[in-house]
Design a protein that fits this description.
Elements: E1 5-8, E2 10-13, E3 16-23, H1 40-70, H2 72-75, H3 77-85, H4 88-101, H5 105-122, H6 126-146, H7 152-157, E4 160-164, H8 169-173, E5 180-185, H9 193-201, E6 205-207, H10 212-215, E7 221-225, E8 230-233, H11 237-256, E9 274-279, H12 285-290, E10 296-300, H13 314-328, E11 332-336, H14 363-369, H15 371-384, E12 389-394, H16 400-419, E13 429-434, H17 437-441, H18 443-446, E14 452-455, H19 457-465, H20 483-498, E15 502-505, H21 513-522, E16 526-529, H22 534-542, H23 546-556, H24 562-577, H25 581-584
Parallel strand pairs: 3-4, 4-5, 5-6, 9-10, 9-16, 10-11, 11-12, 12-13, 13-14, 14-15, 15-16
Antiparallel strand pairs: 1-8, 2-6, 3-7, 7-8
Magnesium ion binds at residues 395, 435, 456, 458-459.
Length: 586
């Protein structure tokens, strides 16, 4: 065993896990050609057929497991894998190589896979190009089965900590919850979607380490502290003991907080703040109810559109939204319409390259450009809204015309439903996510066309400070306490209140204790955060007063730097919470 080493990264999802590393993407096998005799040809072809059928079994099994653990939608990623296994042109290509060149079947397979990957990677169509990855995956699986490394991948995946250069949101979403202890990536920031999914699945994660895949080998013993953003490689016995104790202590704390379920988050001087939950998957509803959230403030629906080969139909979406609405009833659920783009882009839609840019045709821009896709979702939401307290909200609105256009399409969706004699909620409440600086600056204008606002600080910060939220190299510039960000937020809160509409915040900033304190002082009505963070947020709010928080806000309004703001908030919050600070504010 090597020497203990600490790798620092960005804390992405809290919790401690201890286990063995599995370095993803390092298992490439290089097969050398071996000449075979004429007599061996049929034996080699038989081996190919056996490997194909074994691979098919494995994929079906995997698909079933994912469907059970995470739902049918997530399992559909494997449909593309199964299609490759049945692709006659691909299989014939391998067989011909074996027959004509008299080479071993592993080599023929490897060369065919390379050939196909080369063809795929040159295709202009983004969707087809993305299939390269699936193809590579299937190729590796067949090869391993041929080499009698049956289920090698799954065995390695057995209760491991995944180390990867990067994990796309769809890869993260398809991780098997009970087999993955945690994960570490080289790139990515705290608000990258990979990190957000990890938090929602409750898997400890550290991102943006830059060097994890170089420094860690498969099989290394690891400790991940997702709260501190540290990865300890080959820990000593002493370190291991310390972390095990700490893990137990944190487990006890979770139990300890179960009493907060029924508590209402009211400040000491009687101001009631609402705390709602952010979810990505309907599977999270029980956790939302367990922590006593006052509703769902952000239901990110884009994961519906990812990891699958066809677009979700109106009926499929209707069923899912209806289930969420019913289970939360009478509590509110805010469904955010499709927010594809930026770092969330794997989808069946033929996604143009621009959408992968944070400044491109993403989110509402994409929906307005594809009204049929948008309307299908809106019809599903309108219908499901009869079953509970649903609201809808649009992401990435940057100007009033977009909002008016989106509302127009909503009206069209209603007309279509009427024509089809389908029942729906006529007066569905419409909200706007304020996550583009221009929207924050004209929030008084937008308020005329909206029933509520929700501030998306993950994007608002990246756009106002020109810092890519997924780029760890500029993570130090990603400052929620930047005076520019605070001024934008205050502007939105004031505009909303002067128009008598409520304002929520659903970005990650809304769950950080010192900012909760500051935001309450700024007059924010509602916070929406990952369910796991709700118990402490409730206790924190019940330990502070609006009056004190407002004084702190007034004071920091005159400060020049994010550091000054943060230091002052920490100092004041420490004074107020005293010995409770370590527990509630860290
Ligand atoms: C945000 O931008 O703050 C937000 C909540 O949306 P997302 O993180 O999904 O972009
Ligand atoms: Mg956003």
């Amino acid at each position: 065993m090597g020497k203990e080493k600490i790798i620092k990264g960005i804390p992405a999802a809290p919790g401690i896990c201890i286990g063995k590393a599995y370095v993803k993407g390092k298992e490439t096998l290089q097969i050398k050609p071996r000449r075979i005799s004429k007599e061996e040809v049929s034996k080699e072809i038989l081996r190919l057929e056996e490997a194909l059928s074994l691979t098919r079994e494995e994929i079906l099994e995997l698909k079933k497991k994912i469907a059970q653990e995470m739902g049918e939608d997530h399992a559909q990623i494997f449909d593309a894998h199964l299609l490759f296994l049945e692709d006659r042109a691909f299989i014939e290509d391998i067989i011909n190589k074996v027959k004509k060149e008299k080479v071993n079947v592993e080599y023929a397979l490897q060369e065919s896979v390379k050939k196909y990957i080369n063809i795929f990677s040159k295709i202009e169509d983004e969707y087809l190009r993305e299939r390269t990855y699936d193809f590579q995956d299937v190729g590796k699986r067949i090869l391993k089965n041929m080499l009698k490394q049956k289920k090698a991948k799954e065995e390695l995946f057995e209760k491991s900590i995944i180390i990867a250069h990067d994990l796309s949101p769809s890869e993260t979403a398809s991780l098997k919850k009970d087999k993955i202890l945690g994960f570490v990536t080289d790139i990515g920031g705290r608000t990258s979607h990979t990190a957000i999914i990890a938090r929602s699945l409750g898997i400890p994660a550290v991102v943006g380490t830059q060097i994890a895949t170089q420094e860690i080998k498969t099989g290394d013993e690891l400790i991940i502290d997702g709260s501190k953003g540290e990865v300890i490689v080959n820990p000593t016995q002493k370190t291991l003991e310390e972390y095990k104790k700490e893990r137990e202590r944190r487990k006890r704390l979770i139990k300890k907080y179960s009493f907060t379920k029924k508590l209402i988050p009211t400040t000491l001087d009687g101001k009631e703040i609402k705390i709602l939950a952010n979810i990505e998957f309907p599977e999270e509803i029980s956790q939302v109810l367990d922590v006593g959230a006052q509703g769902i403030g952000l239901y990110r629906t884009e994961y519906f559109y990812m990891n699958r080969v066809s677009l979700p139909s109106e009926e499929e979406q209707y069923r899912a939204y209806k289930e969420v609405a019913r289970r939360l009833q009478p509590l509110p659920v805010t469904i955010r319409t499709l927010d594809l783009g930026g770092d969330k882009f794997l989808s069946p839609i033929r996604v143009p390259t621009e959408i992968q840019s944070f400044l491109g045709q993403r989110a509402i821009r994409f929906c307005l450009a594809h009204p049929e896709v948008f309307k299908t979702q809106l019809r599903a939401i309108l219908r499901a809204a009869l079953e509970g307290n649903l609201k809808v909200m649009y992401p990435m609105i940057s100007g009033v015309e977009e909002l008016i256009e989106a509302n127009k399409i909503l009206e069209e969706a209603k007309k279509e439903l009427k024509k089809q004699n389908k029942r729906f909620k006529e007066d569905l409440k419409v909200g706007v996510m304020i996550e583009v600086p221009s929207a924050a600056l004209i929030s008084d204008i937008l308020a005329k066309y909206a029933d509520f606002f929700s501030i998306g600080t993950n994007d608002l910060i990246q756009y106002s400070l020109a810092v890519d939220r997924a780029d760890e190299k500029v993570a130090y510039l990603y400052e929620p306490a930047h005076p520019a960000v605070l001024r934008l937020i205050k502007n939105v809160i004031d505009a909303a209140h002067s128009m008598n509409i409520e304002v929520s915040m659903c970005g990650e900033m809304a769950s950080e204790p010192i900012f909760i304190f500051l935001l309450i002082g700024m007059g924010l009505d509602e916070l929406s955060m990952p369910p796991s963070l709700i118990p402490k947020a409730k206790l924190l709010i019940r330990s502070i007063s609006y009056k004190e928080a407002h004084e702190v806000f007034k004071k920091v309004s005159g400060f020049s730097s994010p550091k000054e703001v943060e230091d002052y908030c920490v100092k004041e919050l420490r004074k107020i919470l005293k010995e409770k600070y370590e527990e509630l504010a860290i």
